[in-house]
Amino acid sequence: QRKDHLNGFFLQEEDQDADSDPATSEGIFVYDPSDPVDVRLGDRVCVTGTVAEYKGLTELKDVTSVTVRGRASLPHAARVSLPMPDEDAFEPVEGMRVFFPQRLTVTDVYNLGRYGEVTLSSHRLFAPTEIAAPGTDALAVAHANALDRIVLDDGSSTKNPDPIPYPPPGLSATDTLRSGDAIQGVQGVITYSYGSYLIEPITPPEFLFLNPRTTAPAPVGGTLRAASFNVENYFNGDGCGGGFPTARGAVNLREFERQQDKLVKALVGLHADVIGLAEIENDGFGPGSAIHDLVAGMNAAAPIGTSYDYVRLPVDQVGTDLITCAIVYRTQTVAPVGEARFMLAGLPEMNRPPVAQTFMQKGTGAEFTVVMNHFKSKSSRGAYGDDADQGDGQGAWNHNRTEAAKALLNWIATDPTGSGDPDVLIIGDLNAYTREDPTTTILSAGYVDLLSRSGDGLNYTYVYKGEAGCLDRALASTSLARQATGAAVWHIDADEPPALGYGTAYKSADQLVSLYRNDPYRSSDHDPIVIGFDLK
Question: Is the pLDDT score of 381 beyond 80?
């Protein structure tokens, strides 16, 4: 490999010189940042240096001589596959030429823009507690997932590559690589870095775009549509174009305008009558507020005959967190009934207060109540006691989130909006996968998971470390569930590389243009949910 890439190259014994022990590798990495000799693929090379281990990789370092002694045929490529039978399965081929005969699934593109890396697996990986009960079952899935990964690297240790190599000829806003796509013909050299096996490609693999973008959510039927969307820290500075950087979100006006444009495209594209929002700045409801600013943008972009407004509360802040929940609605189709309410009493700390509003569907007079939520994240910072990670797959603060779910149910039982109507829709980011305690607590109380009965198989709204899962929920009371006509996730964000978002950091001048489009894709890190109803 070239000096400006890996600061060295790989050596492998010629086939006739290989030993007869299949448990030992015939290859090694030569760390030679001085690059005194132009070494090419296929050269026969003699190297003098010191054998060492670097972060789990066996290498030659302190190289004193590199001599090219003609050309030779490349050693044969060892056949390998995923999942690995055990965590050491690739150790015998470390530093060697290998090929994967199978089609591999793209399961993570998070580091594509930053490091030129794509994580591959034998199939789409799901978060353990999305598909298995916490504890032994979930840990078994986690172990299986760990054995079913290989990182396709770009043969470079350079950060922020330009162009970003995958998919060829380079990532752009219009030519993306998404989780759920596939790659075949993967061939290269196995290496190891920072706890992960990587393959440095020798020949370009073939990319199969099996998870294309969609221009609109899947049809959900009904005469009324509700939606839920985590907008990933929408902060609007001082509301007048200044005040950046803020505590979260965009760091300057340019980033904010790019963020707003993408979010507006996504929100209007939902074609929803009621939209719950998470992670919007908690700065009130006045003309300079984030919610006012976002809805103004939606109205400017909305088609003729569509206008939006937002639910107001008689406070300057909803709770004390930097972010809050909000509700937006289409004025032509629904109208708020009575006052909106939010819950503080009995809510465990660090959960954003749920916001409830009853709506009447114009034309039918039918009513239902929307309760928008955002529970505590899984971040382990400050967690202790029952809220520490219990090692069962649910992460930190699970006890806190479960208590928040119980408090939410108790609050809803008091009919906070005074509607007297049993039709309740719980939406929002619960930061809990489908089989975790907070979700099952609400389901055990009689609520129906509308996504789970959508008929689309496994659903997900978020991808974390290559594992997909549903953190965002659409849970209906029994009476409302009978009026639901469908539910769908619009996969515009979670599968997309973060490099295609609104951020301007780590991008060249050309990439600020090529990696950005005023479209809904990678407008956030969560996918929105859409639900259809025929209210009666």
Answer: yes
At residue 63, φ and ψ (nearest 5 deg) are -70, 130
Q: What is the tens place of the pLDDT at every residue in 405-423?
A: 999 999 999 999 999 999 9
Question: How far is it, in rounded angstroms, from Cα 212 to Cα 162?
Answer: 24
For 30, 103, 208, 211, 307, the CA distances from 185, given in Å and listed in that order, are 26, 7, 11, 19, 50
Contacts of 50 (CB under 8 A, 6+ apart): 60, 61, 62
Residue of 302, 284, 301, 290 lying closest to 250 (CA atoms) = 290
* pLDDT of 453 higher than 70: no
Identify the burial level of 139 via C-beta atoms within 10 angstroms of its C-beta, where 0-12 means exposed, 13-18 middle and 19 or more buried.
middle
Torsion angle defined by CA atoms of residues 150, 152, 155 and 157, in that order, rounded to the nearest 10 degrees: -70
Chain-centre distance for alpha carbon 76:
38
The confidence score (pLDDT) of residue 4 equals 54
User: Could you give the CA distance from residue 515 to residue 162 in angstroms, rounded to a whole number?
Assistant: 11
Going edge to edge, which strands form the sheet with 78-79?
A: 78-79, 97-99, 187-193, 196-201, 150-152, 118-121, 104-108, 182-184, 206-208
SS (H, E, C) 255-321: HHHHHHHHHHHHHHHCCCCEEEEEEEECCCCCCCCHHHHHHHHHHHHCCCCCCEEECCCCCCCCCCC
Phi, psi angle pair for 244, to nearest 5° = -100, 150
Residue type, 348: P
The whole-angstrom separation of Cα 121 and Cα 183 is 10
Q: Say if residues 273 and 357 touch (Cβ distance below 8 Å).
A: no
- Please give the C-alpha separations between residue 386 and each of 7, 292, 402, 533, in angstroms, as whole numbers: 47, 39, 11, 39
Cα–Cα distances (Å) from 159 to 113, 155, 156, 177, in that order, read: 8, 12, 8, 19
The three-state secondary structure class of 349 is coil
- Yes or no: say if 264 and 294 are a contact pair by the CB < 8 Å rule: yes
Kindly report the pTM of this predicted structure: 0.96
- Asked if 353 and 324 touch (Cβ cutoff 8 Å), the reply is yes
Identity (one letter) of the amino acid at 194? Y
* Residue position matching structure tokens 């000096």: 3
3-state secondary structure at position 15: helix
